[in-house]
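Hello,

Our lab assistant flagged a job as stuck in the queue for most of the afternoon. It eventually completed. Since we weren't sure the result was trustworthy after the delay, we are filing this so someone can double-check. Below is the sequence as submitted and the structure that was eventually returned. Let us know if re-running is recommended.
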Amino acid sequence: MRAVVSRVAWARVSVEGEVVGALDEPGLLVLLGVHREDGPDAPGTMARKLHELRLLRGERSCAETGAGLLVVSQFTLYGDTRKGRRPSWSAAAAPDAAREAVDAVVAALRARGAPVAQGEFGADMRVDSANDGPFTVLVET
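-- returned structure --
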């Protein structure tokens, strides 16, 4: 799994003009990609990393502060652009497996007590946010 994680003042994701997930307070915006070879432990590992990473102001984590996370599936994180002009998506998990893995990350975060909002898997989403810092990191399992 791979996630691009931004510390945000706020974030929201909309589908067809309707907000489907939002953080109205500071937290983390997580763009989450699933690799075709991710094993069954990957969602739990990613959830732990996201919840415990000290990315918020004052080097604090969501676990420490109770800050929320907005998780948005993003298969394009596994786009390969090394050859030609068109990315290859062959490393990304198949849609059904990716949906299951993203849902498992969200469930694991919620089981840890994290407030989680999410996008709509497979939809054409618009993501709006106000980066705080800006502070963005790549997290991998």
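-- support follow-up --
The delay was a queue issue, not a problem with the job. The result is valid. Residues 5 and 30 are 5 Å apart (CA to CA). The chain is about 25% helix and 35% strand.
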